[in-house]
Amino acid sequence: MNKKVIVIGAGIAGLSAAIRLQKVGYDVEIFEQEVMPGGKMHQLMADGHTFDVGPTLVMMPSVYREVFELAGRDPDDYIPMTKLDPMYEVYFKDKQYRHYRISSDLVDLMEMVEKKGPENAKGFLAYLAEIYSRYQVALDHFISRPFRKRSDIYNPKMIRQALKLKTFDSADHMMASFMPDKDLQQMLSFQTLYIGVSPKKGPSLYNIIPMIELLYGVWFVKGGMHTVAEKMAELFEELGGKINYNTRVDGIVIEENKVKGVSIRDKVTEAAYVVCNADFPYAITELVKEPKARGRFTPEKVDKMDYSCSCLVFYWGVDGECEELAAHTFIISKDLDDNLERIFDGRLIEDPSIYLHIPSRVDRDMAPSGKSSFYVLVPVSELETAKYEWTEETIEHYRNSALATLQEIPGLSDLKDRITTELIFTPKDFKKHFSAYRGATFGLQPTLRQSNHWRPQAKSMECEGLYFTGSSTHPGAGVPIVIESGRICAEELRRDEPEDDFK
Predict the structure, then answer these.
(1) Mind listing the pLDDT tens digit for each residue in 365-424?
(2) Of 442, 412, 409, 414, which Cα lies nearest the Cα of 427?
(3) Of 171, 196, 216, which one is at a domain's C-terminal end?
(4) Three-class SS of residue 38?
(5) How many CA atoms lie within 13 A of 27 on its CB side?
(6) I want to staple 33 with a disulfide (CB 3.0 to 4.6 A). Which of 248, 308, 349, 415 is the partner?
(7) Per the confidence metrics, is the pTM higher than 0.85?
(8) Which domain holds residue 474?
């Protein structure tokens, strides 16, 4: 076969698609604008500290492992994982912080929810049963398949399945219908922020996120999440693929509605197929220059679409090994409703919720002896929504808020004085380094009208030989789902190749 495929971007979705295509005989070459693979699964190093830039935890480990297994490799040789218990800790800000340790052990979980009374305990089990049923429907009929044409979803069978998903309710309202306790509702439903949407707006189906954690656990990869990207790139090269780093693609070359290759520094590199792993809104407006090839995704439409929140991340080197703290800690604002409204209406957030990840608690090699590596994330507005500029004053406001919040956690009262190293990523950095449209870290919001067949699909129906993958395409954001996006993209390309024996 040996058909040439160019992949734009060595993000996880691009690597997922590239590995699958290279494995079955395509000649695949990746062009990546950064100096390392992974896209937002990037890595920073400073003063002996190692930090993941974006994703920090593994959910659904079987999805990660499958990429290596399909190539005949043992995943444990590439991405050794440790299951975390507790998975994470949650604090609710108040005069005295309320504290919960969240385990994936059902006995421990029941002990926690039963302390809230039998109504909450029964509701918790009912929630798990209900959302697990919906998850199976989503997995079988929506997450794992593409939607090329309207008839792929507008048919009696699929409409029956869609009704089972009950997507018209919001994530937070669904949780409230099962459990009257506000803490339980919030510590579960807020996790829709993992994929950049508010629990007040995100469909209730996204309550599968805490269910997946509770039923399958949270895992840590030795060396951090960037190890996954490094090892996927290594596997791709072992299979014969080629990656060009520090090489930015300027445009996708299209003639007569057929892809011809890509333009790099005014030179055309030809290929029969192009798989674009650049953020879809950026790619369709900046890389696809032929109006006909954009189809319904005109610049005007793209501008009106709903975008996920962004993130401000502080990477701190801290004195002390912090053995009393969990690897993952969430501190939820006193007024979560106000916090969420400000993230999505663009006002400066007065009391932000904070996520703290300490990878050195699991892997001591990620910080020097006697020190810790802190990843402190604040969900914030994307650049177009924000009603403020990213000045030093803005960063200082959020730094002071994060410090004030974290210093109430046991063992961190003197945190400010213990910080010896600091790196920062703002929404402007996500836009600059990863071409994230508007700096929206998770791409297009997975609202009801931007999911399934309404979301950009893998196959371009307007340009022969052009395919898309990544968090702004179907099935959505989150590392396991993005890996699945790469699989769908590779299978869609193979469906269109007459010489391929794809079934």
Answers:
(1) 999 999 999 999 999 999 999 999 999 999 999 999 999 999 999 999 999 999 999 999
(2) 442
(3) 216
(4) strand
(5) 7
(6) 248
(7) yes
(8) 4-41+223-305+444-495
